[in-house]
Amino acid sequence: MAIISTAGLARTFQTKHGSVEAVRGIDLTVRQGEILGFLGPNGAGKTTTLRMLTTLLKPTGGAATVAGCDLVRDPAGVRRACGYVAQSGGVDGQIGVREELVTQGRLYRLTKARAQQRAEELAAELDLTGLLDRRTAALSGGQRRRLDIAMALTHRPQVLFLDEPTTGLDPGSRADLWALVRRLRDEHGTTVFLTTHYLDEADALSDRLVIVDRGVVAAEGTPTALKLKYGGSVDATLQDTFLAITGRSAAPADTAPVAV
Amino acid sequence: MLLHDTALIYGRYARQILRSRFALLFGVLMPLLYLLFFGPLLTDLPLGEEGSSWQVLVPGLLLQLGLFGALFAGFMIIVETGQGVVERMRVTPVSRLALLLGRVLRDATVFVFQAVLLVLAALVMGLRAPLAGILIGFAFVALLTVSLASLSYALAMKVRSPQEFGPLVNAVSMPSMLLSGLMLPMSLGPAWLDVLSHFVPFRYLVDAMRDAYTGHYTSVHMLYGVLVAVGMTALSVTVGTRVFRTAGA
């Protein structure tokens, strides 16, 4: 069953130098409980697509539904169904972990008591219990990311959008995050839609990949199918496959960490 | 829901200002320095207005406090946009209007609190004015800050970089201060300056507040002041709401 489906989803920005077609027409379907890797070179339109699917940005063309709710006609329904972790995260460094979690619960209209209880639950689930009374600025990169994800899970969303969730994390924290994403899907059936520049991550974590280039879907399929089709063999690296599809590199090769 | 969400956002930012009490007091510093070092210069000058020089100066300083403070409120949104806090809140079902109103009401609280501190200092310096007039003055400060903070947040959502925001706000605030007669009554100046100042809305607020401080609650100045203050507030909150509803879109 499709939990996300888009048809010709597009976004054009008007700038001083004319209009820029950030996303020219995305057609994709995501099944419930799937971990989808959304890849593409810098500027391919990944973040713009994510911001449209989470109601932060109105599409200028096409249509989409998330968890059965139309993006344009029922943004409130989409917001109830999805959680979003932006590249930058989204917590104030001066505020304590507990306060951020409780406020987030209240933004999702939980009662005060329920929001406090939910903060404890999330902290236990994401291994933040000992950090509840720290300021968020005092957390390590990996802890910060777990807090960002905890915030996005407050209302037990059906779909979790993660924009480059492991950028800047050390290998151990990346491995923890991968395990967390798999656990969310296995235990709660959460659909995870994630962007990444790390091809080893896409390979290891995703059930299916969608590769975008210049604002359209350039290829999609399981990692193995894509390697066979574009890389010439199932033993091809995803790096070579990606290059064959886009004619460009996902990220400078020397900055991509090796698989953990 | 709007009330619930507004209270929630208000609480978040009220706690933020309580965490930085220094900033809370620092905001009063500029008008306080004017009060201490500029106020005494006026005591024996003919200002052409009824009442003591303090009854002329203090209303101007209170509006200056609101003008400079509230116009810069948008900086907070720029910082929070950088942290991702604004987008994180916007993907929740929270009322878009509450995201504006909670912040703006927090600002109004802060500036009225600072205005109270300034009036207390002025009382020590020699201000004598009727209590009702002083209270009316606080109401004007509250309306002015709600209005200007709304515009400031709306602008900050549009420009998104402190490098653009700072100069823009300065370009508005300095001429507004000079042309509205906050420091000295405009009636002292040449006719062209007096006429020009009538195109600056703050002129009507300061005239009304000076009337309030001398006990004239039913004057023409007061009528215009109330109309301008209420009108500016309605207009600014409408503009702010529209920007917050559609931001990013």
Question: What does it look like?
Answer:
The complex is a heterodimer of chains A (260) and B (249). The model of chain A has no long low-confidence stretch (mean pLDDT 90). Chain A is globular. Chain A folds into 2 domains: 137 residues, Rossmann fold (3-Layer(aba) Sandwich); 69 residues. In chain A, the strands form 2 sheets. Chain A has a 6-stranded mixed sheet, with helices on both faces. Chain A is built from 9 helices and 10 strands. Chain B has 249 residues and is mainly alpha-helical. Chain B has one domain. In chain B, 78% of the residues lie in helices and 0% in strands. Chain B has 13 helices and no strands. The radius of gyration of chain B is 18 Å and the shape is globular. The model of chain B has no long low-confidence stretch (mean pLDDT 90). Chains A and B meet through α2, β6 and α3 of A and α1, α6 and α7 of B.
Q: Structural class, judged by helices and strands of chain A?
A: alpha/beta
Mean pLDDT of chain A: 90
- The total tally of domains of chain A equals 2
Which residues of chain B form runs of ≥5 with pLDDT under 50?
none
Low-confidence stretches of chain A: none
Strand order of the largest sheet of chain A: 6-7-8-3-9-10
Q: Would you report the number of β strands of chain A? A: 10
CATH class value of the largest domain in chain A: Alpha Beta
Q: How are helices and strands ordered from N to C of chain A?
A: EEEHEEHEHHHEHEHEEHH
So how many helices of chain A? 9
* Helical stretch tally of chain B: 13
Beta strand % of chain A: 25-35%
**How is the biggest beta sheet of chain B arranged?**
none
Helix content percent band of chain B? over 70%
